[in-house]
Amino acid sequence: xxxxxxxxxxxxxxxxxxxxxxxxxxxxxxxxxxxxxxxxxxxxxxxxxxxxxxxxxxxxxxxxxxxxxxxxxxxxxxxxxxxxxxxxxxxxxxxxxxxxxxxxxxxxxxxxxxxxxxxxxxxxxxxxxxxxxxxxxxxxxxxxxxxxxxxxxxxxxxxxxxxxxxxxxxxxxxxxxxxxxxxxxxxxxxxxxxxxxxxxxxxxxxxxxxxxxxxxxxxxxxxxxxxxxxxxxxxx
Length: 236
Fold this sequence. Notes:
Blueprint: E1 3-9, H1 13-21, E2 29-35, H2 47-51, H3 62-67, E3 80-86, H4 94-99, E4 102-108, H5 114-123, H6 126-131, E5 133-138, E6 156-160, H7 175-186, E7 192-195, H8 202-209, E8 213-216, H9 218-221, H10 226-234
Parallel strand pairs: 1-2, 1-8, 2-3, 3-4, 4-5, 5-6, 6-7, 7-8
């Protein structure tokens, strides 16, 4: 059965709460796209609060309550969270994102400093290794050789199915199919995830190329029956 992870991209905490509510008792894991407005032009929660001057120490902010453990992420007791970090040098904010309750973090290689990121991965405390899965994402325009120094330090690779990251509803980029095939040939046991433009037409192609996990946004959120749509993708 194919592993399916729904994805959401939200502008603020209210929208996050609203979208997560739709998935309670439907799926266990949700990927939340996090955009900083620097690595990608779009901005999402929690950077909307940071940009508005409600920094992570601001009294009364939703963000501060979570960081101070006064409350958890919405529906934290029934949903696990994977954060797709479209954030410049996100590894330098690892503690911040881990405090938000992440079970999995995806770092984009194009957003990271090559040497300090590798050092971060190699020196990550065993506690975090046991409690948070670490993935690295790669754009369709990036050569897979960029992953070679990192591959033994991560749990999975996420190939982007679109050229313009940070947005949902973008067109499928067929270059991802060759990336997946090359990765599968080179790393036979590697867990390969795909995010971006995954739908009923592209999913079979991605799985045939060698992906074993699909991250799906619009095709699930815009469907009439989200539960059944997820099950249909799982059966591919």
